Amino acid sequence: MVSNPYKTYLKNEIEGATKGKLILLLYDGAIKFLRQANRAIESKDIPGAHENIIKAENILYELMSTLNMDAGKIAENLLKLYDFMVWKLIEANMEKNAEKVNSVIKLLLNLREAWKEIVEKEQEIENSNENKKRSVNFAG
After folding, report:
1. CATH number given to 16-119
2. Segment 21-57, tens digit of pLDDT
3. Domain segments of the chain: what residues?
4. Is the pTM of this model over 0.85?
5. Going by C-beta distance under 8 Å and a sequence separation of 6 or more, which residues neighbour residue 1?
């Protein structure tokens, strides 16, 4: 059986990802599905638009379910923002409205950028800690 290299890569990427990287992958997926929904709206593919908007909504629900509500205001605000985006997508799906889809894409892109910065800083700290562990102190 011949494996699909993209699926193999994606499987390896997910299995080896940190929580932050998984969140980035979820944002990437939601953005991808919403862009596909917009293309479907433009081409009057109603079932395709519906299917892709629902996929993005499901990702938002997943993001909501993984929030650590003990983290305080940040988690509460993210929950409200995700809920707002789901509502916008419900409206967009009923109306097949590309502008509403685009407004959610913009929010997701901003959130993704913020998460990307967090993940990069965590990676820098991790790399710094790894380098410290590897260094040898010959001074005794």
Report:
1. 1.20.120.340
2. 999 999 999 999 999 999 999 999 999 999 999 999 9
3. 16-119
4. no
5. none
